[in-house]
Design a protein that fits this description.
- The chain is mostly helical.
- The radius of gyration is 23 Å and the shape is rod-shaped.
């Protein structure tokens, strides 16, 4: 069974949004590729960095060594994870704003008058 969803236009001067046409457009496919190229590597980095603390703390003695005075590597890595989380959050918010802008342009292109 195949569905073809067309949203009713709220503005009488614009045509309804044809979701299938949007999904099949080259700009939308390019947007999905850009998002994937951003999200997959940043997610892999986050997971590796995040799980490095418990793995290194439990299975090695690397983090037991003092780094700065009596502060061990475990404390440094734990603090670095807070910094990493905020940095990745800021990067993601800025990139998401760009993705939202491109998505709005794609929708606007598909709801233009007479298109």
């Amino acid at each position: 069974m195949e569905f073809h969803y067309v949203e009713e236009a709220k503005d009488p001067n614009k045509k309804p949004l044809d979701y299938e046409a949007v999904v099949n457009s080259s700009k939308f496919k390019k947007l999905l590729q850009e998002k994937k190229k951003f999200i997959v590597p940043i997610t892999i980095f986050f997971l590796l960095f995040y799980f490095s603390l418990p793995v290194l703390a439990v299975y090695t003695t690397v983090l037991d060594q003092p780094v700065i005075g009596d502060i061990t590597g475990a404390w440094v890595l734990a603090f670095a994870q807070f910094i990493m989380t905020w940095v990745l959050c800021i990067i993601y918010v800025k990139k998401a704003a760009y993705f939202d802008k491109v998505a709005e342009e794609i929708i606007a292109e598909h709801t233009k008058e007479g298109k």
